[in-house]
Amino acid sequence: MSNQTNPTNTYTVPSVSITTARTGASSKANELGMRAMQERAYAKRGEQYLLIKSPPASGKSRALMFIALDKLHNQGLRQAIIVVPERSIGGSFADEPLSQYGFYWDWRVAPQWNLCNAPGIDEPRVAKSKVEAVRRFLDGDDQVLVCTHATFRFAVEELGIEAFDNRLIAVDEFHHVSSNPGNVLGNQLGAFIARDKVHIVAMTGSYFRGDSEAVLAPTDEAKFETVTYTYYEQLNGYNWLKSLDIGYFFYTGRYVEAVEKVLDPALKTIVHIPNVNARESLKDKEREVNEIMHALGDWKGIDPATGFHLIQTGTGRTLKVADLVDDSDLAQRSRVLAALKDPAQKNNRDHVDIIIALGMAKEGFDWIWCEHALTIGYRSSLTEIVQIIGRATRDAEGKEKARFTNLIAEPAADQAAVAEAVNDMLKAISASLLMEQVLAPRYEFTPKNQGPLEGFDYGERGYQEGGHNIGVNTSTGQIHLEINGLATPQSPERRAFARRI
Question: Kind of pairing, strands 478-483 and 470-473?
């Protein structure tokens, strides 16, 4: 990646390449079938409140299976409820024959209790049937249920926190929780902790929320025992992946014309198109997907079994493309999601070639063969960027390189300023991959000379316009850092998120 030229202009911009040691340590299994991170987490299985901070692809889902099964069989808990942010992630908790690899029990989820596979979107009107399913599960004898954050919120509101006594609640992508009073899931978890009659396992692949909100109140945070497994340990412990490339590329004109220059059909790729309100968007998401597919080759129809589009390239190869953007046909969308989550295809490299998404397939989405995460449009949140990078950092046989490319509209600035801004952003991304803090954010990144932040101490001389300012908030432990050349978003929506870096 670092040797590629800019798709439409004559100059290049900085990129960074992380080379791994390939020790194999993070992939080796012990006598119970646990990899390094999972063994570390399992050692804390007796904790009532457990936080697992571990990067994408480190095996958090299976670690939770080991812990949940022990709590069900040895610690007296009645049931386990697994809560994920979106339906596509539910496949990560499908049945696993853990006893084949040395563990004491197998992981089983009865089909009717994986509510991520149930039809219908998670909104109050449609979700009533899912809430009723949660009620039936709590009244029954089956042990494991999987549902979305939304379904769980509705169920708690309807059934009350007492209905969940003596059960394990496992929350995947825990950074969605916030101590802000407006965060419903955060308030509910606070109530569960106050009642103190459930066990909670919290899992996150991001070491911060990406905004100024703490995930939990300090008093609740103190009750959690923490297991930390860093990106450094994870990447260096792989068997196959040699390097991770991270780069920013700029274009002029329409992004769909620039995509062709950076989208290599030979690489397994997830393409995230821009939000409809983004500067880069063409304001017609279905047309954008169609133009991307047209750039790949000639459309030959849709596979009736999977719902994947079949695209024939100029070399005669047929690509299988999953469209997660078009939501006009819910049956078709469910067919595509089911095909992507099919556990029988997890290790099949040829199952799908390219996935095009908008808001989905960012966090917790498990596709081990992904080699390239191509993201179009400015992303103001480092948490989102790190999550997207994580889609490409899974280890798989024969997969030696992974890359993240952010394709954004060329800013109105000279080349040196742009290069400096991108270089600063690459440093921030690289640093964030190694950060271990998750429950209370510690860093505030803002553009240069934006001004002092309230509550921060900038030393004896105070905040200096044009100076090298570092501020410290002694009450929260946060540090304010300014990044020279980082552009301030111009739209009201972007400005509202400007500090979520």
Answer: antiparallel
The string of pLDDT tens digits covering residues 419-451 is 776 777 777 777 666 554 433 445 566 777 778
Four-CA torsion 153, 159, 164, 169, nearest 10 degrees:
-10
How many Cα atoms sit within 13 Å of 62 on the Cβ side? 24
In whole angstroms, give the CA distance from residue 454 to residue 407: 34
Does residue 271 contact residue 361 with C-beta atoms inside 8 Å? no
Output the six-digit token pair for 88. Answer: 């596509």
Q: What is the pLDDT of residues 16-47, one digit of tens each?
A: 777 777 888 777 889 999 998 999 999 999 99
Q: Which of 39, 61, 141, 38 is nearest to 107 (CA)?
A: 61
- Which element (helix H / strand E) includes 447? strand 443-447
CA dihedral 267, 91, 35, 108 (to 10 degrees): -150
> Full-prediction pTM beyond 0.70?
no
Rg, C-alpha atoms of the chain: 23
What is d(CA 45, CA 201) in angstroms, rounded to the nearest whole number? 9
